[in-house]
UniProtKB/TrEMBL annotation, chains A, B, C, D:
Name of this chain's protein: Chorismate synthase
Family note: Belongs to the chorismate synthase family.
Organism: Maritalea mediterranea
An example molecular function term from Gene Ontology annotations: chorismate synthase activity
Cofactor note: Reduced FMN (FMNH(2)).
Record has rRNA-binding as a keyword: no
Assembly: Homotetramer.
Binding site for FMN: R131, S132, S133, N243, A244, G287, K302, P303, T304, S305, S306, R328
NCBIfam families to which the protein is assigned, alphabetical: aroC, PRK05382.1
Reactions mediated catalytically: 5-O-(1-carboxyvinyl)-3-phosphoshikimate = chorismate + phosphate
Keyword Lyase: yes
Xref: InterPro entries: Chorismate_synth, Chorismate_synth_AroC_sf, Chorismate_synthase_CS
One Pfam assignment: Chorismate_synt
Gene that encodes the chain: aroC
Amino acid sequence: MSHNSFGQLFRFTTWGESHGPALGVVIDGCPSGLAISEAMIQEKLDRRKPGQSKYTTQRREPDQVKILSGTFEDERTDGLRTTGTPISLMIENTDQRSKDYGDIRDKFRPGHADFTYEQKYGIRDYRGGGRSSARETAARVAAGAVAQLVVPDIKIRASLVQVGPHKINYDRFDWDQVDQNPFFCADPVAAAEWATYLDGIRKEGSSVGAVIEVVAENVPVGLGAPVYGKLDQDLASAMMSINAVKAVEIGAGFDAAELTGIENADEMRAGEGAPYFKSNKAGGILGGISNGDPVVVRFAVKPTSSILVPRETVTKANENTDIITKGRHDPCVGIRAVPVGEAMMALVLADHFLRHRGQTGREGGVGF
Amino acid sequence: MSHNSFGQLFRFTTWGESHGPALGVVIDGCPSGLAISEAMIQEKLDRRKPGQSKYTTQRREPDQVKILSGTFEDERTDGLRTTGTPISLMIENTDQRSKDYGDIRDKFRPGHADFTYEQKYGIRDYRGGGRSSARETAARVAAGAVAQLVVPDIKIRASLVQVGPHKINYDRFDWDQVDQNPFFCADPVAAAEWATYLDGIRKEGSSVGAVIEVVAENVPVGLGAPVYGKLDQDLASAMMSINAVKAVEIGAGFDAAELTGIENADEMRAGEGAPYFKSNKAGGILGGISNGDPVVVRFAVKPTSSILVPRETVTKANENTDIITKGRHDPCVGIRAVPVGEAMMALVLADHFLRHRGQTGREGGVGF
Amino acid sequence: MSHNSFGQLFRFTTWGESHGPALGVVIDGCPSGLAISEAMIQEKLDRRKPGQSKYTTQRREPDQVKILSGTFEDERTDGLRTTGTPISLMIENTDQRSKDYGDIRDKFRPGHADFTYEQKYGIRDYRGGGRSSARETAARVAAGAVAQLVVPDIKIRASLVQVGPHKINYDRFDWDQVDQNPFFCADPVAAAEWATYLDGIRKEGSSVGAVIEVVAENVPVGLGAPVYGKLDQDLASAMMSINAVKAVEIGAGFDAAELTGIENADEMRAGEGAPYFKSNKAGGILGGISNGDPVVVRFAVKPTSSILVPRETVTKANENTDIITKGRHDPCVGIRAVPVGEAMMALVLADHFLRHRGQTGREGGVGF
Amino acid sequence: MSHNSFGQLFRFTTWGESHGPALGVVIDGCPSGLAISEAMIQEKLDRRKPGQSKYTTQRREPDQVKILSGTFEDERTDGLRTTGTPISLMIENTDQRSKDYGDIRDKFRPGHADFTYEQKYGIRDYRGGGRSSARETAARVAAGAVAQLVVPDIKIRASLVQVGPHKINYDRFDWDQVDQNPFFCADPVAAAEWATYLDGIRKEGSSVGAVIEVVAENVPVGLGAPVYGKLDQDLASAMMSINAVKAVEIGAGFDAAELTGIENADEMRAGEGAPYFKSNKAGGILGGISNGDPVVVRFAVKPTSSILVPRETVTKANENTDIITKGRHDPCVGIRAVPVGEAMMALVLADHFLRHRGQTGREGGVGF
């Protein structure tokens, strides 16, 4: 069952609420013997951390990770190593600003999970959205850092490629730019335009959606288990599980609907020792199985639902009212979704790497 | 593990290849006491059946379903009823045209799973694509018919909404039109245009992609299990698992990226006994849980990879060659994906209905 | 979820009722490239087949297996091979003797699942016990034959070691005797005694319980996943799932309760290249993980519940009555449980072999 | 997958090592709205806590539980309530006595998981047995306390019924005695005898095995999912997963092997509104489904492997040596397994309660 767990052989379970004492993740099935450290995980968490620019929430959380189990070190292990047992990671919440929750306690914020949690469970931790808060994604990023250790040769990177109606220009795409601007954007010109655009959005007390592209390079051929453990299927599931995501596509994605079979064919040519594909409309996946080309996933994040402009809603007592959501919100949650997308990619690939190795006895590979 | 199974409490496992003796599905976890018949399942299968118009493959398969287990009838059960034990459904393959498979045996067809199956498994049933053939979707449709019995009040319908670059006009959207044309299209004008367009595509020996929209009405509030059993997550997984699907979106989907928080808010108003939403940008799902509004999913299908125009490829021996894929192929596989999308929607909702009932003791419902 | 499935990476799902048209199993996750044949599976089924001696049911079922999917053969595969896709096996029921079911339709047979199925599902296929019939074990045996292909070096054998109060003498234990008597008994003297004893039991119209011992030799070190995927845990689950089984033990089992720590210690000694154990109280499993010694499991089967001596029971209308269960029943179902126990051992080991390989990248091995 | 998780709808995952900073459990799928408190869980933990008599380890661990997530309280919830989200419980380790681990670092203790962990993972946290330590069972007991909230009407109790060769006299069985002696023994006379017996065992520096009986009363009819989610199967799995357990039986258990069908039949009689069983050889389970009678499980625990008498073993370098295991060990680990057995019973029943409710829409019940 998958309530709060994801993955099969490499499986993680997250827990925690926005304003509880802590949040965390238990990673189960990580191979033993991998060099690991809190610093290694922290580095990934720091990229997702709030309050790093004026374009993300001003909540001040150090998001300091602690490893509670699953690792061991003595003079013979050459540093801290995974042991094959569950790795428990915890992040304490420190900046749960004391405040009056009256408004969101009794009203349903449009676009939030308030109404559905209330209906499903009959009780709701309304403080900061409780379990439905995007703070849960810190646990994903921490888990993703561990997943990356399982597939060290796979290079996973992501870029914000659209903010509101403004898309990047792929001709300017440069991975080295991603950490040079507050948007994780591979196109520096677009990043500069977004800065101006988002200043306006913030002044209006509004927010805006975004699209993220995640690319995994050097993925071995053979990952994915047809028919209901397809690699693209699990990637779609992984990305759609991120807060506020409304759409996922692989390779050409929705554009594939407009193409003819002639245009969409990724033709092959004989290469040195192995064939290669002349194009990558498939996004690196054929029949649910990786083909050795870069795995390319894009997902759309809706605009932050918490805005300062009043919206119509109802109270728990089914009475009409308005609501504005004060607080420290991201004007574009898509920005901080970039490292989360990278983490989910790592988590899916690590799981399928182990599954493939289990079923076939091979570690996959490019070519034949 | 999910190799060839999907769902949790309502779980199905499919088996079979395109040119094997039969294909089938085992449905596990179906509640007992439901009235069932082969005719009921056959009706759904007949909608997906090949050879019903010149726009789909001319393969002649009656797709006759047999119930092999999980049902019982005596004078006290008032007809055939499910018993709560596994329901095994089988469909025999009858039109596996005898032919020379030499070309696809030794060459990888671009866009097909030939290369990846060969690489992953080291052996490949190349006859008609084997396990990667869309014939597997017959098993999904059969299972979907049973799933619908679990959630009889939920109305699930789908329409083709785009063929190549040609989209429907939503102002003309009329569900009653769907079964009046060979495209399962709710817009009769678009259907007529597509007929002409696809004639051209067929003459070119090419194919084209499509977009399908699936809508479920009267979905109870509360279905979905955050954080990794979200309803939208499982729908994304379900739709992405269908052959040739490259993209999935819920509600506003990718368009949500372009909206502001002001525009995207589904405002609420007090209603009779329960509040209602003024709009449905969310596609009926908030925080991964159904909110009582129609659940709206769209997915993109790439153009059929099997085309009559030669494409460059390589042989198993890594030598350059060309390939054309003769045979009886759908110029637009998106058409027959319409009933498959409906089936997957039913399968996901039935599973979440049982899961919700298990965890909460309630059957969900609109309002509070 | 596990309603009718077992295993994780090597997973099988059974379906079918005693008096339905057929029963079967879908095996999911079997590695590709393994040589397979219907004859190979049939050989195992023939050992379990009813009607082979006067000590088992006289129902005449050829139990002829058909492979419906998951295999492929051409001139390059050197015979039929698994392809990595689901293997569907079907066995048609042929000897569902037409008869009046009135008695068991309306009365609950003591010791049978009649009462609980009726209560749980509200409907019950009473013909021959329906799904609760031991005919389901034919599907296990067929699946077990495939599982054995995954771990060809592991030698799995079983013997009946107790019938009623009569135990074998382990000093006479000889595996070669197992197929020389109708009891799968490694002690020929005990087998002869049982023949006389069971003749008496049959004349009384009664039945008797039994104990089966299953031994797997050459099991690689390292199979098992602590803490909730322990090898002994999964073996206990596997054996307890067999019809009529009421107890399972590993190694010294219940006797371990009577031992001191001094007596129970399996001391170790340095061996050639690897250490060895001086004794095997552990039954080949330490901390849930195989240690390279033979894995030894024993399980107890209760006496056949269907007997010719009247027993008190009630009707569906909660009225007192008596019942005798006519029909063709095994006086000791434990006999035919022997090949079933072997099959379950193979299924558990094959699954853990793949899981271990997935998580560690190694295939296990004896020694270090 | 089940590495460190157990259960389906009510699922828990444990983590932590004997000498790490903490251990814990994440409970996923607990229904919302249940009154909960740390004190409630602590009460159960205190029963299992070490150092409560001279018959258990003298390690001093307060085993203080903290609830980190999944609960909420405000003025309307009437105390702390579960919210339906994951409940994370943590217990900090405080008495990891600083010491030289040299001996167990380099030698394999007979009967322990040292050898198999080393072989499987290539690395081993040898401090106190690491993950294989029975300290993990604290997490089970904490989880079991939460499970009991899901099935409040089911009464679960356990008694030690055998220590070494000394069994209780069932004629003296009195549940009220269980908490009146340091052995959780329902027979006060046996308890007194065991005290003397164990004093001798301790003086010898040895240890001894035990048998525990767990009884659940007022279990609703209908829990259990044939064929591979049988209630007895999951109980066998649950109990066998406890450290040092080597055998499990249900109802008559191994004794059933010696009975005839006449003796073993639990005859039924018409009762007020519902039938009843005249005996309970079945241990409350028929065909894998609860029948309304008490569910009775017994399991055998081997003697503590850590003893003060030298035993032969080998070093990691495959050299012969001896080992004695100093430390603070239980002379009979079976004693502290009693509350663990209760917890596992609660965990299995809670899970099956939710599964049954999901699949059938009913909560089960006695009678029809």
